[in-house]
Write a structure and sequence with these properties.
homodimer; alpha+beta; 9-stranded antiparallel β-sheet; 32% helix
């Protein structure tokens, strides 16, 4: 029987076919935390982990995160706050709870319907005293009204009857890092626990540092199969920080009660009076009803998938995983809020505090540039809005221009702490923010490529060029002139490979810095010619002088680039480190550290955490001839442990480029399955945004060979793997949706009437009707 | 291996031998709630249920109750408040909790050491990942400092090591009736969650109705086997209503860490500044240390048992159960606080709101009268202190004198609600407070018998006589004169058998009322002669007149007493009800309702809930000849379902009197085992105080045949069961401890030098040296 068929006809009718479902079959509490991430839902305004509504689970980290709601308090850094838990529903019969772990769950099945953004489950609970209850539920965060989340829980007492007692709960006694006593921290203060009118619960909160208000409201209905209201009594009671509305209803043996819970979360970021707004939205939701809201929600996902789906013929498992990555990617970011970004763990877990890293620009952004340019614009605008803080950050560190923070939350300040604490309580000095400066080049790269791919020149004029100039200015001040060699060097930095820190003249950073300056000068020169008024404004605003531009030019041209071809040394002295190649892999196929290095620290061996020179070659293909790329890929691939989930997708893309199809596909799989198979064992902490974006890049930019050349033309050099017979996907090209079909050796584009030129393997084409 | 030997040598050395232990062997979560009552500890200031310190238990109702801390808020009645939970300790290693239900507990054993008032447990927890941890703990509420509770938890990582993360918690997010959503209610407001100096947590609370302040503090130490402090770091964090102190310590494989938690709870009833007092007591406790406090605590129990033990040779199981009843009885009441009483469920559960019923005077008080007369004085003084409210209560109901409430909390107002709610949500009118007036006679009976047994004439002068007079006055106003019969009747009352309500002229109530008036007049007459100044004071204070006394006399002498001998009708018309006798018993030996009555309401059949006429005969033996007692016992015993735990002990005592030794013993067992074997299935709600006191009465007043005759002499008419070879126990007789040894047909008393006269089966004796 298909997954879908195992649900009741009502829910089965809503669900997509099994190819679109991610399933958890049979209940294993040990897997709860990973599934809470995997089954996390996101609406664009918030994210909600896939904990069980009926509660009573021992191993759980329920969480609701709202874009832009950050707080530090006693934590190391400002982090995305866990906000009051609106999902909880407590079900009791005769003092006995009805929930998943109170009894034996039979025929347990939970599925994430990626096609429709729904989480559904069913099981039959058999209590110790023999009572059997069938539970079936359907949950979603509305894309139509992204501040609203809701679920329907159908409860059928199979062999008993009596009174169902029910608590509609909002639990404000939440913390971050609940299961890690050392790091556990409270980010919100509860300001109000009250009843809503005519029914429901409300919790008012505010962040502890900045006092940002937040309102969470929830209403519950209980109906029978005929839709009749079955609530016998209803009473609100605040229990400290637990808002609790008691309801009861009569249960008849074999008859299903349908419980619907509607929640709304509003913040002071958007509304002066979050409470009033919550009440209004819940009232409107009650009028529309669950089914109407569900229809509106599904319509949004129809539209999203109509743009974002990538169909692969030839590898169903990979197809499934790719869709999972796309689903989470497109669900996470705000649709119309340039003040927020995408966290390294998306909005599905607490790790990394919900901060934006270079992951956004180099891994995630290309998906949005090509598929959802509106969201991409928000993501690059986010950096522009925080440019002032980047200027401060540079100044604070003794540099000029804009130095973007390694980790960025709402204020744009550096959130990566200088000192951090290990799980064993020992403190260590964390140098990442001090040395890992390449993020600043990544921000510039993201802005430039956004404009290049989307053709959004307005962004470049209003924001992008200023980012490019200020980051170029940073690099010019960051590099030091060495008269003895007549060259500029960038000393004491860390490249993507964080195991070697700090080092001098990393190939990656030096290349990116030079590119950043060159790109800024080039863009400024074009602007000067084409839009003198834009240039004049910037010239004045930034206090540019010809002398300074000349300095940049000199710096870039004399920036120390070790070698242009042949084996590239990752940083000064890397080749002098004790060398060894990887010869062992673990059961998951992950490379193991060579035995001779196991007790060594990073600077005592040649082994890399992640793609570094290989990453550089991926980003700057034009700099190196193919032979150089092949040599370096072979060399570094044998020395890379992929301890970052950012690494496999880049190795896929580069393996593909240098003709190592077999390893490329293995890396694609590693990237695609990282969360859906919990490859790294850390999915419980959230989903890997960079892997998701990287996986999409592997398929579209890698196997389908799509890029935009310097002239702004769409070009393809496809090399599908042997088992793929076809890939179909869509992008938005200069405002026009293109339907792209890639078959072995060919690419065809439909553009619904527009005539879009493109090239395939050098041959010019025009889109079909 | 004995229970004791299964513990580590350190704990085994502290424990009594197995005869004194109540054991829970093997862990069965379904039994948690009952064991939480059975393993509840009480210090005289508070009670604490036997929940597991390390938490993580699904089926649990942890609770701490403090004598005199009542609140109503949205509940039906003022009830003993569940106060912040100071017992919690959260233990984590590498994000995984270490607790009973997180893993497989092996070799689980928990014992209540009744001899020393200790709760000890041990088990080895095997986590899903194979880590094994041995846990051993020892908990007590200090009798030496009864506001203090503490436990020691020894944790040994058997096959792993690393960092132990620990949270010292005080959870103020507590409610009453946690597992019954309909009744769940919050009684305290949290006013403060703060750090104590130099370490520890503090929670300030106040009751919601009256604002009574309450302070709860807790400190934790972590030491190794050498006693060295192993706390690496310590940090206080308030999480809303959860006070949390984080601590960590290194664990070494196979080495034991000893965690001690000390708590103190003070209220505004005793201290102006509970916080300061909590801090002081915890500081003093830290200086004394766990072992010294334990020694002081054990010394108190040595002294308590030296008075209270009853040794039965011939039935080990009954001996064990009797000690359990005595242990809980003597642990529960305050030692020096006449403003508090003993709840029907002692201080071990929430049922009946911690209220005092007639259970105190007729079931529990005799134990204290004979064994701990100081505590008995508190219990009777409690009623005197609330006499004003009883006067108000009579007036409110249109009567004169003092009408004691059916349920009494701290204010003395009637706490038994007029309307109450069933678990299914339906409301019903509860007539108990309206009609069950016999409690007022029970209060008088308790005062009179306290003075009679203890010889505390000062109490009688200062308080007791006033109670007798005001209750007599009540009865005189409660009875109505029926000129047609020239008699007084008491109409519309309920006797102990609550299934027939209201009815007219219950034998029980009429007899007790007459006794109450007679006793008051008799006592007053003696007082007039012997202590005219006392009499004059009362005369004036109560506004007594000769005319009123004459009225009482007339009322008593003309009070309708149906028959003095032969079969006694329980109330007017009882003999007209459809009649049937019990012919079926369930698997537990409990009688079943005759089939023809199963759908009937109480007034439609003859079946009784509990001893009524039988109870009357027990209390008033001199009124009835033995044949009458036998006839009535036989008659009513066949019609009583014993749906109250008050019933079996009275049937034991009366069975014994009428020579039904076999049934008497069966009733003794039913009474003795009610909680320790959870006979009635409701031990989870608290322990049965009346059964405990009734069981003690069965043994001492029943089998040993002890009583105090009208002249104030101690008399014995022993009739030990065949299997008992000897009973030894102690009482305090007019200030002198007597060692009483009862053997078949004989009683010997040692009085340590005092010459105490007593009679055995009519023969006069004097105590031995």
């Amino acid at each position: 029987m298909s997954y879908r068929q195992r649900f009741s006809p009502e829910i089965a009718a809503l669900l997509a076919d099994d190819a679109w479902l991610v399933a958890e079959e049979g209940y294993d509490p040990a897997q709860n935390l990973a599934y809470e991430s995997i089954f996390g839902l996101a609406s664009g305004a918030m994210g909600n982990r896939g904990s069980h509504e009926e509660g009573g689970i021992r191993k759980t980290l329920p969480a609701n995160y709202v874009h832009g709601v950050f707080d530090q308090s006693e934590a190391f850094m400002r982090e995305l706050c866990n906000t009051p838990d609106w999902t909880k529903l407590r079900l009791c019969h005769a003092c006995e709870p009805i929930s998943l772990e109170d009894g034996e769950p039979r025929d347990y099945l939970r599925v994430l319907d990626m096609r429709h953004g729904l989480l559904a489950k069913r099981y039959v609970n058999r209590a110790a005293d023999g009572r059997e209850t069938r539970i079936e539920s359907l949950k979603f965060l509305s894309r139509a009204h992204p501040r609203c989340g809701m679920f329907r829980l159908c409860l059928t007492p199979l062999n008993y009857e009596g009174v169902l007692e029910l608590e509609n709960l909002i639990d404000a006694a939440v913390t971050n890092f609940m299961d890690m006593p050392r790091f556990r921290v409270r980010h919100l203060e509860t300001t109000e626990v009250s009843a809503l009118m005519p029914d429901g619960c409300y919790v008012g909160s505010k962040t502890r540092d900045f006092g940002l208000p937040l309102g969470t409201g929830a209403r519950v209905t209980v109906r029978d199969a005929c839709g009749a209201d079955r609530v016998k009594s209803r009473r609100f009671r605040p229990f400290g920080e637990l808002a609790c509305e008691f309801l009861d209803a009569d249960m008849t043996r074999g008859d299903t009660l349908t419980i619907e819970k509607f929640a709304c979360i509003c913040t002071g970021r958007d509304f002066d009076d979050p409470r009033a707004q919550v009440a209004r939205e819940l009232e409107a939701l009650a009028l529309r009803g669950f089914d109407a809201e569900l229809a509106a929600h599904i319509a949004r996902y129809d539209a999203l998938w109509a743009m974002a789906d990538v169909e692969i013929d030839g590898d169903d498992a990979l197809q499934h995983a790719l869709r999972f990555n796309i689903f989470q990617l497109m669900s996470t970011p705000a649709q119309d809020d340039p003040h927020t970004n995408i966290g390294a763990k998306m909005i599905h877990g607490e790790e990394y505090g919900g901060h934006a890293f270079w992951d956004t620009e180099l891994f995630v952004l290309p998906f949005f540039d090509y598929v959802f340019p509106g969201v991409a614009r928000n993501l690059v605008t986010y950096r522009y809005l925080l440019l002032d803080k980047a200027l401060e950050n540079a100044e604070k560190n003794g540099y000029r221009g804009a130095k973007y923070p390694w980790e960025s939350a709402d204020t744009g300040e550096e959130e990566c702490p200088a000192w951090t604490v290990c799980p064993d309580g020992s403190c260590y000095r964390c140098y990442v923010a001090d040395y890992e400066h390449h993020v600043t080049a990544a921000v510039a790269y993201g802005a430039q490529h956004y404009a290049h791919i989307t053709g959004d020149e307005a962004f470049m004029d209003e924001m992008g060029l200023e980012i490019l100039l200020q980051t170029a200015r940073f690099w010019a001040s960051r590099a030091v002139y060495k008269p003895e060699y007549d060259r500029y060097e960038i000393l004491r930095v860390t490249g993507p490979d964080e195991w070697h820190e700090p080092v001098d003249n990393t190939a990656y950073t030096n290349h990116l810095a030079r590119w950043n300056i060159d790109c800024a000068l080039d863009r400024l020169a074009r602007c000067r010619q084409e839009k003198p008024e834009v240039c004049a404004r910037l010239w004045a605003a930034l206090g540019l002088t010809e002398a300074e531009l000349m300095e940049w030019k000199t710096c870039a041209s004399k920036l120390y680039i070790k070698t242009r071809q042949g084996l590239i040394e990752q940083f000064d002295g890397y080749f002098d480190l004790p060398d060894a190649v990887i010869t062992e892999w673990d059961a998951c196929g992950m490379p193991r550290m060579p035995a001779i290095f196991r007790e060594k620290r990073g600077m005592q061996h040649c082994i890399l955490k992640q793609a570094d020179v290989v990453m550089l070659m991926f980003l700057m293909p034009y700099v190196y001839d193919m032979e150089t790329q092949r040599i370096n890929y072979d060399y570094y691939e044998q020395r890379t442990l992929h301890r970052s989930s950012l690494s496999p997708s880049i190795h896929c893309l580069m393996g593909l480029r240098v003709g190592d199809a077999k390893r490329a596909y293995a890396y694609l799989e590693r990237s695609a399955y990282v969360d859906i198979r919990n490859n790294q064992g850390n999915t419980r902490e959230g989903l890997h945004a960079a892997s998701a974006g990287g996986t999409w890049q592997c398929v579209t930019l890698g196997y389908c060979g799509m890029s935009v050349d310097d002239s702004g033309e769409l070009v393809f050099t496809p090399h599908l793997p042997a088992r793929w017979t076809r890939v179909r996907y869509r992008i938005v090209w200069r405002g026009t949706p293109l339907h792209i079909t890639v078959t072995p050796g060919d690419v065809r584009i439909r553009a619904n009437g527009a005539l879009v030129p493109y090239r395939v393997n050098g041959e010019s084409r025009v889109s079909e009707w």
